[in-house]
Specification:
Layout lengths: L14 H13 L5 H4 L3 E6 L11 H14 L3 E6 L12 H18 L4 E6 L4 H12 L3 E5 L6 E3 L2 E3 L3 H11 L5 H8 L14 H11 L15 H20 L4 H4 L2 H13 L4 H12 L7 H10 L14 H6 L2 H9 L15 H6 L23 E6 L2 E8 L9 E9 L2 H7 L12 E4 L20 H4 L7 E4 L11 E3 L19 E5 L4 E4 L3 H9 L13 H9 L19
Helix pairs in contact: 3-9, 4-5, 5-8, 5-12, 6-7, 8-11, 8-12, 11-12
The structure holds FE2/S2 (inorganic) cluster (FES).
FE2/S2 (inorganic) cluster binds next to loops.
Length: about 575
């Protein structure tokens, strides 16, 4: 196979001319023949003025290029789309697959022997790994790293668990306009990703557990010098991979590495989004994530990381306590230490080097977990025939077994309009139900599953209620919240049949979620549902592609034709 600049020649019907022409143009940038004859390491640039989480990307790229060149290879930076959580309409999830397609095709289209993908904000690492897996070129992943913590009136603050907590206090009238404005400038004090165990941190930890990034790369704070030394080291590793043509993602991603990723996802109190992304990544390989097996793992794997929203600390504390290598050491035989990583080392070798930090309390030992079971449980029942997920580690224990009256919102818009209506018929024991917020329904499965507590109840002191939907939830959020109900209501899932006043039973110990309405009545309601038609928003362009091909949450929300085996 051709190397470096000779790879993937543009098709002019004359390979010699194609190479000649390529060199003519690239020499316009001032490159020498010596440079052009080196193995090439492609580097994705996801810097964007709209993406503050990626604010350190230019500095990371500079360090990566240094590492690549110090090892005798040639770095070539190229842009891909960048997605920032709070700047993506309608949702960042709507764009994840577009980023995965863009990244995959740019890796394929341009000559490179290895690639470094630099990402971090929620959907970017999953998109980039999905792309790398499909392109199957030697790949090094560099997470941009978490922000450092903020401070307010002696309290440590972090985006965005504390954004939600403080906004909840503001809604409840516990803090005023002046104070909410002050914390607005203190919740995100540096560039980098959210510094709690949200989706970004979750995916960075999973990436490290999969062996696709350097040890400690998930947790080094974004502004720290160590982040840039790690980037330089990543450049060196990628240069070696470019020369030796491996290992490729297909060599690193095995049943053992996916199992490790699931163990880490449970043990960190990870984001529910992590399960969707890991499923999508696996579906691009010949391996699968089995929801039943994931749930079973959740009963065996304790939560060991004491980070918000399940615990108390922030990513920088996790880092200073020893990071993912130390966590994997504590997990002991739950981790398959023979799994290989990009450096050629096994996890066993990496764990052997884990730092021992006396007195740290961010990474707990197995005999003193913060929760004895894992972060997530998978539920089934007549409301969720193909499954639903609850982050039990961030839920109220007393609500994990609960039967209540349904208060139904038809859509995110309906919920926004009515949830604070003083005349809304709702009590603290009710179950808030949101529908039409799944992959197709909203579209893009918004993080609307964290339904706000109705203002009149919040002001009366209600902090949590059972809430359920076909939506997602930010990994930074907390509460007794059932998510990803599958199939979603917009395609006729049972969530579409719920009516105000129906009784719903949640029993997390039994892993069940049921609508307590008899089957004959449900059948009548099903027959009365309007037929599923193409909505107006999905008539053209990417929206059309999205609506026609998006898979449900249990299949990772990838496009059906992007899975490893293609469209069936
Ligand atoms: Fe980018 Fe949280 S908004 S990681």
């Amino acid at each position: 196979m051709a190397d470096g600049l000779r790879k993937g020649l543009t098709s002019y019907g004359d390979a010699g001319f194609s190479l000649f022409l390529r060199k003519v143009f690239i020499k316009a940038m001032g490159y020498s023949d010596d440079a052009l004859n080196r193995p090439i390491v492609g580097i994705t640039n996801t810097y964007s003025d709209y993406n503050p989480c990626h604010g350190n990307v230019p500095q990371i790229i500079e360090a990566v290029k240094r590492g690549v060149m110090l090892s005798g290879a040639m770095p070539m930076v190229f842009p891909t789309i960048s997605i920032a959580e709070s700047f993506a309409f309608p949702t960042s999830m709507y764009l994840r697959n577009l980023m995965a397609m863009d990244t995959e095709e740019m890796i394929r289209a341009q000559p490179m022997d290895a690639v470094i993908v630099i990402g971090g904000c929620d959907k970017t690492l999953p998109a980039q790994i999905m792309a790398a897996v499909s392109a199957d070129l030697p790949t090094v992943v560099i997470p941009v790293g978490p922000m450092v913590v903020g401070h307010h009136k002696g309290e440590v603050l972090g985006a965005c668990t504390d954004c939600r907590r403080l906004w909840g206090k503001y809604r409840a009238g516990e803090i005023d306009d002046v104070e909410i404005e002050a914390v607005n400038g203190r919740l995100a004090p540096s560039v980098g990703t959210c510094m709690v165990m949200g989706t970004a941190s979750t995916m960075a930890c999973i990436t490290e557990a999969l062996g696709l990034s350097l040890p400690m790369s998930a947790t080094i704070p974004a502004p720290h010098a160590e982040r840039f030394r790690s980037a330089e080291a990543s450049g060196r590793v990628a240069a070696v991979m470019a020369r030796t043509k491996g290992p490729k993602p297909s060599e690193l991603l095995t049943p053992a590495s996916f199992q490790n990723a699931q163990v880490v996802l449970q043990a960190i109190g990870g984001s529910t989004n992590g399960l969707i992304h890991l499923t999508a990544i696996a579906n691009r390989t010949k391996h699968r994530i089995d929801l039943e097996a994931f749930d079973k793992l959740g009963r065996e794997v304790p939560v060991l990381i004491d980070l918000k929203p399940s615990g108390e600390h922030y990513m920088e504390h996790f880092h200073h306590a020893g990071g993912v290598p130390k966590l994997m050491e504590q997990l002991g035989d739950l981790i398959d230490l023979d799994a290989k990583t990009i450096t050629g080392q096994t996890l066993r070798e990496i764990v052997a080097d884990a730092e021992d930090v006396p007195g740290q309390d961010a990474i707990r030992p197995r005999d003193n977990p913060i929760k004895s079971e894992g972060a997530m449980a998978v539920l089934h029942g007549n409301l969720a025939p193909r499954g639903a997920v609850i982050k039990q580690s961030a839920a109220s224990p007393k609500l994990l077994q609960h039967t209540g009256r349904a208060v139904v919102f038809e859509s995110v818009e309906d919920m926004t309009l009515r949830v604070d209506d003083p005349d809304l018929d709702v009590n603290a024991d009710d179950v808030l139900v949101l529908r039409n917020a799944g992959p197709k329904g909203a579209p893009g499965m918004p993080e609307a599953g964290y339904l706000p507590i109705p203002k009149k109840l919040a002001r009366g002191g209600t902090k949590d209620m059972v809430r359920m939907s076909d939506a997602r939830m930010s990994g930074t959020a907390f509460g007794t919240i059932v998510l990803h109900i599958t199939p979603e209501s917009a395609v006729g899932g049972p969530l579409a049949l719920v009516r105000n006043g129906d009784m719903i039973r949640l029993d997390v110990a039994k892993r069940s979620i049921d609508l307590l309405v008899d089957e004959a009545e449900l059948e009548k309601r099903r027959a009365a549902l309007a037929p599923v038609v193409t909505p107006e928003w999905a008539r053209r362009g990417y929206a059309h592609l999205f609506n026609e091909t998006i898979l449900q949450a249990d299949e990772g929300c990838d496009f059906d034709f992007m899975r490893g085996q293609g469209k069936r």
